[in-house]
Design brief:
333 residues; nine-stranded mixed β-sheet; 10 helices; globular
Length: 333
Amino acid sequence: MPLTLAPMIELSRKQDGSQDTAAFARDVADGLSQQQKTLPSRYFYDGAGSRLFQQIMDLPEYYLTRSEFEVLTNNRQTMAEHFAREGFFHLIDLGAGDALKTKILLRELARQQSVFDYVPVDISGDAMLELSSSLQEELPEVKVEAVVGEYFQALEWLQEHKAERKVVLFLGSNIGNFEYQESLEFLGSVRSYLQAGDRLLMGVDLRKNPDVILNAYDDAAGVTAAFNLNLLHRINRELGGDFKVEQFCHHAIYNPLEGVMRSFLVSKVEQQVQIRETGKTFSFEAWEAIHTENSHKYTLRQVEELGSACGFKVETVFYDSQRGFADVLFTVS
Ligand code: AVJ
């Protein structure tokens, strides 16, 4: 019997994808025209990039996913009870991906017979299709409304449902990709669409041995390098770029003073790259870098401050056994 997909809305896309391409071309042109070249990390996640990120989550060095899996598994009952305390709620999952971790909570909520619906939001349309159909099969009692789009589209969704009860999930240390100022603005916006009784569960990677952090973003098998370099392949595929990808290498550094992991693509030679959709040619000097990603690592004090600056107060902090990762449950203050 053919699978019927759960209702799915695509807020961000024109039918022909031309709007996406134009925005991508503009962001790439802007980033590569800077004095210090940069590309936004949200463009990592095309089909190939999402598959590479799946592989990253299985790497021995990439502890983040396993740690959070442990936190959610060990605390699922308490978390689900907190969520469902005031009756019906929308469970909004920002950057849901394959939702392997969220499924721990979904199963528990279903077991407790909580009344809720599930709203995963992700920029990968492929991922949202797969998730909708896998949930249909695995948890047919859960009502799913997937949203394909960027975070600002998630904010629009929150705004449209302002009066209804909501629990927002922001797992996986996705917050870490923001600059501190951006994270304040983003959480502040989320907060403005919540009200008393609503909650935010946010996953944060905590400060730890810098070697452990560095290895997680520079694995021995080279999967993270491939993930980073896929951004150039994607520009070639979607924007008619002529990057010779083998002439770039992945480089990652961790600054323990700031608690920021930074990733780069470094040009090994002096070269020029033409990108048709931008109508431009970009010059690289030998060993010139493109900054592609930040991943912030937090102290608990910082997380509390971040929350309180945005109108949230900590209800409970759930740690993994190593205390290297935390899922922080906030209520609105
Ligand atoms: C999905 C943003 C949490 O920053 O750890 C993994 C992405 N980049 N390896 C992270 C990522 C390189 C990841 N987040």
